[in-house]
Specification:
Number of helices: 4
Largest sheet: 3 strands, antiparallel
Order of helices and strands: EHHHEEHEEE
Distance between the termini: 28 Å
Radius of gyration: 19 Å
Length: about 190
C-alpha cells in the first residue's frame, strides 16, 4: 500500500470543507493547502471518513496505528491511495509527494542527494525545502505495464536512468543487453 501524488483539487476541497479558501491557480491551491496542512495540529483537521474508499480507509487506519496524532494520517484524503499486487510497479516522479505505507517493495531512485519528509515520521521535517521541491499539481498514479520478452518482465519508468527487470528462470531464455550499464541482481526466491 502506498500514497502517491495529489488528488484533483476539487476532490481535496470536498474532503476538507472550509479548510482552505479558493487560491487562484491550481498550483496555488496545492501549495497553499499543503502549507496550511503541514502547519496544522491533528485536532485542527476535520474530514468525513465515509468519503474514503476501502483502500483509502485501510491506509488511514494503518496510519492511525503507526502515527497516532500526526496530521498526515489524513493523507488518503489528498493523496492518491494505491494497492499494489505482487509483481506490480509504479513510477513516482521527481518532486512527487509519496509515502509507502505497508508491504515490501523495491524503491529505485534517480540520481538525488536528498530525501525530504512531510510527516508520518519522527525524523526532522524541513518544511521550507519541502515546499521548494514538491510539484504542486494533480498527479495520477499509474501502474507500469512491463515489456515481456522470454523470461524477463522489464519495467521502464520513463526516467531514462534505469529500468527494473524481473527474471523467472525456466520460463524462457534471458540475454542481458550489452550496452545498458550496471546491473544489480537480487534473488528473492529459490536457491
Amino acid at each position: 500500500y502506498l500514497m502517491n501524488g495529489f488528488k484533483p483539487a476539487d476532490e481535496i476541497k470536498r474532503n476538507f470543507p472550509g479548510f482552505i479558501d479558493e487560491c487562484g491557480s491550481e498550483s496555488g491551491f496545492y501549495s497553499a493547502f499543503l502549507k496550511k496542512f503541514i502547519n496544522s495540529g491533528f485536532g485542527d483537521i476535520k474530514a468525513d471518513l465515509s468519503l474514503l474508499d476501502p483502500v483509502e480507509r485501510y491506509i488511514f487506519d494503518r496510519l492511525q496505528d503507526y502515527f497516532p496524532g500526526d496530521p498526515f494520517v489524513y493523507a488518503p484524503f489528498f493523496l492518491n491511495s494505491v494497492r499494489l499486487e505482487p509483481g506490480d510497479a509504479l513510477a513516482v516522479g521527481e518532486g512527487q509527494l509519496h509515502s509507502y505505507v505497508e508491504g515490501m517493495c523495491f524503491e529505485l531512485m534517480t540520481s538525488s542527494d536528498n530525501t525530504l519528509r512531510g510527516g508520518l515520521t519522527d525524523k526532522y521535517i524541513n518544511k521550507e525545502e519541502l515546499y521548494n521541491v514538491i510539484r504542486f499539481r494533480e498527479e495520477k498514479s499509474s501502474i507500469i505495464t512491463p515489456v515481456v520478452s522470454g523470461c524477463e518482465r522489464r519495467f521502464i519508468p520513463g526516467f531514462g536512468e534505469f529500468a527494473l527487470s524481473e527474471i523467472k528462470p525456466g520460463t524462457g531464455e534471458f540475454v542481458s543487453e550489452a550496452d545498458h550499464g550496471m546491473e544489480i541482481i537480487f534473488v528473492y526466491s529459490g536457491r
